[in-house]
Fold this protein.
Amino acid sequence: MFVVVLSPGDGQGTLSCLFGLCMPQTTCKILIIDYEPRGIKQMYEPLKAAGYEILLAKDGVTGFEIFMKEDPDLVLIEAMLPKRHGFEVCLDMKRSEHSATPVVIVTSVYKGRKYRTQAIHQYRCDEYLEKPVAPEKLLETVGRLLPDQAAPAAPAERPTPPPPTAPEPVVDQPPMDSVEEEISNRLNDILFGSEASDDSKRSA
């Protein structure tokens, strides 16, 4: 049995920008089940740099035991493994009490649409990746499958303020005395004719 628990420490509340992706530092546990050193390194290094806690097993039997004991947040499992086949281990995980845990099959042997379809529909894996896996693709897949790694919502757009209204032009008003005089003259014209208007002008 070979078991390694690797924890990069507590990085909550910070961001780790890696390979052009900004990943939130987290204490999520990821179980890697692989026997080939190069494949382990390709998955371990970017995940550790992103702040994940890594659990590692090198065969199918040990991997399933760690899965049941530690209840990781996500599993990355090689299809071809010693002791037990990765496809079978994946199916056992999906039949267990931790069936909601995302399981990603990563393979360097079983490549092509036929194996991918079989792995997803028959063995119920959540994602199927073919090696070599680019770090960007690995981090994107992990972030998408982990529920607490959802991208933050885009900030709401601020409403555009209305353009300032131009002030109304100021119209010079005639003095009140002249207005009252003009109204009085017009009333006299209407009521008494032009004579009353002339008398009003003379009296003014």
Notes: The longest strand covers residues 29-33.
